Amino acid sequence: MKYKLLAASVLATLSTSALSATYQLTELGNFEGAKHTYVTDVSENGHVIGLANGLYNLPIDISYIDFTDSLINTAYDREVDTFELSDKQITFTLDDIENNDAIYTNADAHTFMVRFLSNLSTNFEYQKIRSVIATRYNSGVITEQPLFDIASVDYEGLTRSTSDFYNAVAQDGTTVGWGSAPFDKITFIPEGETEEETWFTRDFIERGIVISEEGIEVPLVPEFTEYGGTSQATDIVATDTGYFVVGNVSVSIPTERQKSLTDNCDGLDEPEMACIESFNSRNTRGIFNKSAVKWTLDSNYNVVSTEILGLALTPKEDENTNPFISNALAVNKNGVAAGYSNTRYFDRDSTILTMPAYFKEGEVVDFLEQRDEWQGGKALAINDDDIVVGFATKRIEGSLRNKLYYHDINTDTTVFPEDYFISSNSYANDINNQGYIVGEGEIGQSDNSRRSEAFIYKIGDDKIINLNSLLPCYDSDGETSFSYKMAEAKSINENNEVFGVATKTVEKRDSLGEVVTDVNGNIQYESVAVAVKLTPITDGEVENCKAPDAEFYERNSASFSWFGLLLLPLVGLRRVFSF
Prior knowledge:
By secondary structure, this protein is mainly beta. The chain has helices at about 10, 70-85, 95-100, 100-105, 105-120, 255-265, 270-280, 550-555, 560-565, and strands spanning about 20-25, 30, 35-40, 50-55, 130-140, 140-145, 165-170, 175-180, 185-190, 195-200, 205-210, 215-220, 230-240, 240-250, 290-300, 305-310, 325-330, 335-345, 350-360, 365, 375-380, 385-395, 400-410, 415, 425-430, 435-445, 450-460, 465, 485-490, 500-505, 525-535. It has two domains: about 10-20 and about 35-60 and about 125-565, no CATH class; about 60-125, no CATH class.
């Protein structure tokens, strides 16, 4: 079961008509090396894992860059224009970066180079950098958990070129996730040329991994390993004899796609893997056919079986251009998995949708009724009673919106609870065995003013409850407006503790981690995302805060769309990374 937290003793009385519980909010820890921290999963025994985003002091390698090249000069000219539009004078030159170590001493220069490289993420002649890392939480201390990154040969520390997605933790602290291989800086001479070029390549695009609490690492290598293959590990459950782990793996490449790769990625004009990466990044579904999978591991972390769970459709012989994909995002102790799969539109075979699905006893079932205009979505969690939760997509008031749901596999019934308002995007992230669901939804009717706020919902109630309404109105001094706003609830257990993400206002820091001041020397402030725990107060009372929206904006005047910065797990890594 993925994400599991909430207790009956307090929540038995939690409903839309009678509220008898409030929550105490506690930050889970501090991580000096990054701007934002997030929770991705929590075990019933209290193991907490997550992510950190917005790393300070990202390493920049300038040794290979030609500073006379038009790409970087055009980017610098635009940077100058941006400063002038803000009535500021730029504080560095390209010569300062090339010859005067400006990227180590000037935050503006460092930010410029980070942005420049980030905008060239699909150009493999330039360094690759990533700003998200996997983390473990332990008694207020947050430590990094590298998945596949290694020490750099060009600068101190890790390469910081990998993408890390740390997804789930079992009861004994065994964790799973997936990540990319680190990029290597290589030299390459194109056919017919004599001068060496610098390129950045890696061995594989993505690979699942199991990590024991003691640090034993077990990469989950797919059987289909052409161009490195792919695998993802998204959830884990401990069993009497070991573990169930679910995710997806590459199983083949469509024949027409393979023909294009063979014709174009011949290793003559560019390194073969750079060409493969380009094809993969340009196509929404990538280059591989991928299937949901369930691995069974014994207690010593040996993979004893690999079950390919399949698709909710059968590809036709002439459907050999675009990949087909399914993925298992959650599994329960019964071995029933849930996630999503490509499937056919109910009255038009040629139209392929990605719909929520569950995987049970050799069947792949996409359970939403397409005739009700549902045209997409995912299942994000499943409890031990085989109740699935997630989100589904349909057009509402002229725009595609996501709506939370729960589906009972045993009765084949799907319910869409009432959320904040009719066109609010909402997501159910977790469900516990008592039928309590947590997630988040948008508040604010205007598209320009929408923001995410966490909720809790009990199966059978009328509508969701905003968790912020169960938090204090004021900080401990009784006067200052409460410093946190719960943006997302990620996990709920049987002890009535909710783990998630809140925003708060802190001193603003630049890309080198230094506090930012204005021209008059006054410290500036910004909103950041922090990982938090909500503990129920059994004898508490719900406080009636006055003008909550006004208070929120007053104390978060520097607020921003923080979830857009991560694009991954605040909507749980499970929602954002579709394939």
